[in-house]
Amino acid sequence: MWSALSFLALVCSSCGDSGSAASGGGSGQPLRLAVIPKGTLHEFWKAVHAGAKTAAVELGVAIEWKGPDPEGDRQAQIQTVQNFLSAGVQGIVLAPVDQQALVPAVAEAKAAKVPTVVFDSGLAGDAHVAFVATDNRAGGVLAAERLGGLLQGKGRVVMLRFQQGSASTMAREEGFLSTLQGRFPQIQVVSSDQYGGDTEKAVAASESLLVAHPDVDGAFCPNESTAHGMLIALQRASKAGKVKFVGFDASSALLTGLEKGEVHGLVVQDPVGMGKRAVELMVAHLRGQPVQKDVATDLVLATPENRTEPKVQALLKPDLSILSR
Questions:
Q1: What does the buried/exposed string (b/e) look like for 207-227 if buried means 16 or more CB atoms within 10 Å of the residue's CB?
Q2: Domains of the chain: which residue ranges?
Q3: How many other C-beta atoms are found inside a 10 Å radius of the C-beta of residue 107?
Q4: How crowded is residue 37: how many other Cβ atoms within 10 Å of its Cβ?
Q5: Is there a contact between 278 and 296 (Cβ–Cβ < 8 Å)?
Q6: Cα–Cα distances in angstroms (integers) from residue 263 to residues 115, 187, 241, in the given order
Q7: Is 136-269 in the same CATH topology as 4-133+270-296?
Q8: What is the CATH number of domain 4-133+270-296?
Q9: pLDDT-based confidence at 265, cuts 50/70/90?
Q10: Residue 86 · residue 114 · CB < 8 Å
Q11: 45 Cβ neighbours under 8 A, 6+ residues apart
């Protein structure tokens, strides 16, 4: 079995980011924080990384960035938390894959006097010191309002879920479904119980939905991987642009779809701001400053019509240049 020092050496060589040399971790060394996303492949997580690194540079701390492999793997993320605890980090900044499964790991960290700031997706219990996220239910409401308006209150809709236990996407899904039911009662949701997961699986699930419901009028997907998968399936079925489609988060493929009129709306978060604020809160807590328990980050609805507006562009195409420095 690897020693803690061996693990730390690997982490630092493969994914560590450092701020300036300001101290804070004892013995004149900077604070060392673990930043653990749900994964590292999606463009959303790259933007979170950029925000976390920006905060680290500004505050003079060191961050070590590592997500579970494969992306979204509960056990892999639990192991990552435990490995960072063994490696002696002073704080953990975590986007939980599962709102229940990560509870024992965060409780273990608290018992070891290593605090956790949770971001992006909620965690049950109160062992963490702060939570930074989008108002995910409100994002689902925005998506439903957009799709309901596009369909003029009538039609057949499918919703492809992301993953069981993912609090952020579950809140989006609930906000979407409850808003359609309450505000657009003549819209029929013909499927809402299928899960997409990563992009490859989401393509297969989306293709199955389109075969099962060939007369569908609209679709909603609650995150980047499911939205990308649905877009590919719509393109392959020659239904892109014909089926009204609203997704969540931005990527190069989804932005191209928005520009071409194949995606009719994207609910877009501020992942750079989320990563930055989560690290800022952790550093403040470790330095004995009071921190806000719950922090909401920006949320906008991007459409083909407003996509070039400065505020929307800033969230659709965040500056990731710090990752190459």
A1: bebbeeeeebbbbbbbbbbbb
A2: 4-133+270-296, 136-269
A3: 14
A4: 29
A5: no
A6: 40, 19, 7
A7: yes
A8: 3.40.50.2300
A9: very high
A10: no
A11: 37, 38, 39, 67, 271
Buried b (16+ CB within 10 A) or exposed e, 190-204: bbeebebbbbeebbe
Q: Under the phi-then-psi rule, with left for phi > 0, alpha for psi from -120 to 50, and beta for the rest, what region is 85? A: alpha
169, 232 contact by CB (below 8 A): no
Contact 52, 278 (CB under 8 A): yes
Residues 6+ apart with CB under 8 A from 96: 38, 77, 102, 106, 118, 121, 122, 123, 167
Q: What residues have CB less than 8 Å from 25, skipping those under 6 apart?
A: 31, 32, 61, 62, 90
Cα–Cα distance between 3 and 164 in angstroms, integer? 34
Q: Note whether 65 and 14 are within 8 A (CB).
A: no
Show the tokens assigned to 231: 């877009």
pLDDT in tens, 142-199: 999 999 999 999 999 999 999 999 999 999 999 999 999 999 999 999 999 999 999 9
Which residues on neighbouring strands pair with residue 33, listed in sequence order? 63, 91
Using DSSP bridges, classify how beta strands 265-269 and 299-302 pair: parallel, antiparallel or unpaired. antiparallel
pTM: 0.86
Mean pLDDT computed over every residue of the chain: 92
User: Domain 136-269 belongs to what topology?
Assistant: Rossmann fold (3.40.50)
CA torsion, points 127, 130, 132, 138, in degrees to nearest 10? 70
For residue 129, what are the CA distances in angstroms to 81, 100, 125, 144, 269? 16, 17, 11, 32, 22
β-bridge mates for residue 246, sequence order: 220, 265
